[in-house]
Amino acid sequence: MPALPSPAPDAHLIEIFSSIQGEGPWVGVRQIFIRFGGCNWACSYCDTGVEALEYCKVEKDPGSGKFKDVANPVSLSFVAELVASWKVVHPRAYHSISLTGGEPLIHEHVLLEWLPKLREFLPIYLETNGTLPETLKKFIPHLDFIAMDIKLSTVTGMPTPWDDHRRFLELAAHSRCCVKVVVGRATSEDELIRAASMVRTVAPETVLVLQPLSAKGKVTIPADKLLRMQELAAGIHGDVRVIPQNHHILKLL
Is 122 in contact with 96 (CB distance < 8 Å)? Predict the structure, then answer.
């Protein structure tokens, strides 16, 4: 008698909700956000609690902003049924499912089972810090969009993992991807030149987004400095855009 397939592993999640993508070149599209707990990085500017608690916050109705508690860990069957029901409510509204965090790729054993099923409902959009290339390699066939970061040391307070970022981008470039660089007042020209040069060399068709550091929804960099940053990066790479965090401006989740 053949062995029965083992059930997909459950995941420790922070929240599941429906909202508008607020960052990067796909800003403005409607997504179902699945926020995973845990991260392998510790950026000084991070505005998101990354540890999953006893309960996952799940939006009661898509876009309502009202939540209920669901015990962690959360099952794939629960998430799949939720996504399916939200698609019924708004069948043409959604662009994709955003896997965010924290860092989703640290949940490798979960994603191996979850991605094929979730992709039956909507395209998959991965938001990632771009530091785990060997893990990404396993998921490329299941990802439709990849939004990866380049973590500059002057902003994160940690050394920039340039080699990991390069290997990650070499893989991500086979999907529809963008590169996001959070920039602050202390960001150096040398950092920007190195980031823009890497994107130009590895993925010349990829959008490079400069995301100004913000506090309480307000950009913390003067306009003239932002313009200088864009000029510097655009002198190296062909498609450089300055895009702030719009969900804070719109007061969205």
Answer: yes
3-class DSSP state of 209: strand
Long-range residue pairs from 77-84, CB within 8 A, at least 24 positions apart, any chain: 77/8, 79/16, 79/34, 79/114, 79/118, 80/117, 80/118, 80/121, 82/16, 82/58, 83/32, 83/118, 83/121, 83/122, 84/121
| C-beta separation of 183 from 209 below 8 A | no
Assess whether pLDDT exceeds 50 at residue 3: no
Q: Mean pLDDT for the chain?
A: 93
Superfamily of domain 13-180: Aldolase class I (3.20.20.70)
Q: In the predicted model, is pLDDT for residue 5 greater than 60?
A: no
Evaluate whether 47 touches 151 at the Cβ level (below 8 Å): no
* Total residue length of the chain: 253
Task: Find, among 208, 186, 187, the residue nearest to 197 by Cα.
Answer: 208
Stated pTM of the model: 0.94
Contacts of 53 (CB under 8 A, 6+ apart): 14, 37, 72
Question: What DSSP designation does 139 have?
Answer: T
Per DSSP, the three-state class of 227 is helix
User: Which structure tokens are listed for 95?
Assistant: 């662009």
Query: Is 151:114 a contact under the CB 8 Å cutoff?
Result: no
Distance of CA 11 to the CA centre of its chain: 17
Of 165, 89, 94, 172, give the one whose Cα is nearest residue 129. 165
In angstroms, the CA 168 to CA 175 distance is: 12
Nearest by Cα to 111 from 186, 36, 4, 55: 36
Task: Tell me the pLDDT band of 173, cut-offs 50, 70 and 90.
Answer: very high
